[in-house]
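Table S2 (continued). Query chain:
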Amino acid sequence: MTETDSAETAKALALKHDRPVPRYTSYPTAPHFHAGIGAREQQAWLAASNPAAPVSLYIHVPYCRQMCWYCGCHTKIVARYAPVEDFVAHLIRETELVAEALQSRRRVGQLHWGGGTPNVLSPADFTRLMDRLRQLFDFDSASEIAMELDPRGVSHELLAALQAAGLKRASLGIQDFDPVVQQAINREQPFELVQDVVANLRGIGVSGINFDMIYGLPYQTRAGFRHSIDQALSLRPDRFAVFGYAHVPWMKKHQSRIAEAALPDAALRAELAANAARQIEAAGYRRIGLDHFARPEDPLAIAFDQAQLRRNFQGYTTDDSTTLIGLGPSAISATAEGYAQNAADIPLWRRAVDAGRLATQRGIALTAEDRWRRAAIERIMCTGVLDLDALAVEFALPNAQFPAERARLAPLIGDGIATLSGNTLRLTETGQALARLVAAAFDAYLQAGPGRHSRAV
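Corresponding output:
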């Protein structure tokens, strides 16, 4: 089979099986969180966490200076700095409450700033937050500090603050360099601007540069997206994440500003995704799971090779912490006992912090069944291989024949998306881009009620 034939086969399978399924950054997934989990449960879960093990922190900054029409994040546009300044004060207090709940001083393995736009913070407020974090938690040379950055707001003052804080990894939202696409999504940032930001970040010692690209945006073409990927490759980032745009205007009203007629159809979406993957791999990057790519020497590629890759709310990660603490509105925490999500509404979050309690509004406690299904899904998503016998032994599953899962897998196996040899399930090369569909066969909640998720391709 020629490369062209292989590409056409992959595209046909993607179109045949494309349907809404979760991204599986958690299991159970966020639509199944409920109000029965609140501050009391989260406080108990934090207190029960292993004091000798490192924690990871995720800080959600829920503000942007301008709305990008494609955005699916919890964020709010601010014209004045006063709301951001107030947010910083409440975030510091929330961090203090979390530190108290942990009942002992913890080492931080990873700190990730996300949003929204984390660099909407002033350099002085960012520094103030970092100083307080270092007072409450232990950081060392192995602690990875990472931040998502909007290239349009990276000043020399911010660069100095990032350098002083020890920033090790920066993720830049590129999406697409085509000016027509950028105008259609309300995010205009020329290539030269990103080029300068990358050079400046490397100049202050940031050792890891990640690029986020999106296919499925309005007015994207094969040639245009290919050129955007070429431009991105010329800057030699350490990692790529290439996501499919999820058009959900019923959930995110601002997405209605994007004309649906301008969106690529399912066939073109599949082609854009496949072409980008081939292009990035041809430049020497390793494909990591569903939609990430990394240089062979990058820690993400090494973790993939050693079957130590993990998946959490930031996507694919090397983070193996069992306690991930989310700070800020809508942020999600993951502990050994379950998941807890803060109030997404900023005033509700603020009132909880003012009252001296954790801002948990919903979540879910893990059952024994959730735990083995979560392990199965993560292994499919991260390694592409699932040993059903080993899974049954690890979780003491009696008479584990998985008949329902085998039935759901049958059409995917029949179409060459996965293979089942003995009791070992394995994604094929074609099926790697459709890992979510294979993982969904083990999702009991999805079978009971699918909810609304993004498309598989």
